[in-house]
Write a structure and sequence with these properties.
GO terms for molecular function: threonine deaminase activity. Keywords: Amino-acid biosynthesis, Branched-chain amino acid biosynthesis, Isoleucine biosynthesis, Lyase, Pyridoxal phosphate. Helix content is 49%, strand content 14%. The chain is an alpha/beta fold and 340 residues long. The chain folds into two domains: 231 residues, Rossmann fold, CATH 3.40.50.1100; 92 residues, Rossmann fold (3-Layer(aba) Sandwich), CATH 3.40.50.1100. Helix 5 links the parallel strand 3 and strand 4. Helix 3 packs across helix 5 and helix 5 runs parallel beside helix 6. The longest helix is centred in the middle third of the chain and has 17 residues. It binds pyridoxal-5'-phosphate (PLP).
């Protein structure tokens, strides 16, 4: 993990490559520039200025529309005519569905059978074909790859693709434009590493002193495992509570960036996620999904561990696609966590 290294030419060349792609990504045809808002109660609680990057306010209620649209825009006319196939834990699925509809591309999306219903409906209501397959993301992914090979369609990875990473990197570009003064660290939820890869590439190129901290759920910490092993590893099992980030292996492209440019990775428990969902609600009156609360849970852990005060810390509030029915469980666990 990096401690603000002096970049070698090859490594900074990688960042420059992504910065150019990020600057050229035409995401604003569909995505919106989301606000970067102070979270007053959270800031008071943690004695640091906490800013929330409100990606839950995107048209598909997560940042995933950025990478999906950028990727589809790069396809040739022939590829567009053939259609696309993807595998997704649900949020990329909705991004691809919306982007494909906008561009008149046929989309087939494979999701694990455990995908929350509103994510499946979000795909179907946008005109894409949703196929439910396998108990978790790796099974859905294998099936989608088979389908793509059989029909010769383009497979659109949810995270392991430079165009997807560049689309997600526009989040980092916006953060630097919106917060030009003090900025100590950006906390980023990690699933397959597309979001953190894009943000790290942009931010480390322009402001290398800003710490990039990845946050993973304890039950799916594939980036931490890869950094410790020095190579990408496949987790033997993955917990699905934070369904959006329940990935068994970090993507190759994201890992290429993260191994040099991510300063720290924090893992948090499911109860910490529930508690973070409540804290975000208290400040915004919006409810995020478990993966969407990773960054705030990570900030809380980080502040407790490192005893930092008076810093400016950004949390990427990455998504809000949570089934209404699961709110009771979230509220119960949040209450149990605050009592413990
Ligand atoms: C809400 C949410 N947050 C974070 C992530 C992590 O993104 P990535 O897979 O690019 O690491 C995802 C991935 O689907 C997500 O849905």
């Amino acid at each position: 993990m990096s401690t603000c290294p002096v970049p070698s030419t090859a490594v900074s060349g990688l960042l420059e490559h992504y910065v150019k792609k990020i600057l050229a990504a035409p995401v604003y045809d569909l995505a919106v520039r989301t606000p970067l808002q102070v979270a007053p109660a959270l800031s008071l609680l943690l004695d640091n200025q906490v800013l929330l990057k409100r990606e839950d306010l995107q048209p598909t209620f997560s940042f995933k529309i950025r990478g999906a649209y950028n990727k589809l825009m790069q396809l040739s006319a022939e590829q567009k005519a053939c259609g696309v196939i993807t595998a997704s834990a649900g949020n990329h699925a909705q991004g691809v569905a919306l982007a494909a509809r906008e561009l008149g591309i046929k989309a087939t999306i494979v999701m694990p059978c455990s995908t929350p219903e509103l994510k499946v409906l979000g795909v179907r209501s946008r005109g894409a074909q949703a196929v439910l397959h396998g108990e978790s993301f790796p099974f859905a992914l294998a099936h989608a790859l088979q389908l793509a090979e059989a029909c010769g369609c383009t497979f659109v990875s949810p995270f392991d693709d430079p165009d997807v990473i560049a689309g997600q990197g526009t989040v980092g570009m916006e953060i630097l434009r919106q917060q030009q003064g003090a900025l100590d660290a950006i906390f980023v939820p990690v699933g397959g590493g597309g979001l953190i890869g894009g943000i790290a590439a942009y931010v480390k190129y322009l402001r290398p002193e800003v710490r990039i901290v990845g946050v993973e759920a304890e039950g799916s910490s594939c980036l931490l495992a890869a950094l410790r092993a020095g190579e990408r590893v496949v987790l033997p099992s993955v917990d699905g509570f934070a369904d959006g980030t329940a990935v068994a292996q970090i993507g190759a492209y994201g890992f290429e960036i993260c191994r040099d440019w991510v300063d720290d990775v924090i893992t948090v428990s499911n109860d910490e996620l529930c508690s973070a969902i409540k804290l975000i609600y208290d400040d915004t009156r919006s409810i995020v999904e478990p993966s969407g609360a990773l960054a705030v849970a990570g900030i809380r852990r980080y502040v407790g561990q490192h005893r930092v005060r008076g810093q400016t810390l950004v949390a990427v509030n990455s998504g809000a696609n949570i089934n209404f029915d699961s709110l009771r469980h979230v509220a119960e666990r949040a209450a149990a966590h605050s009592a413990s």
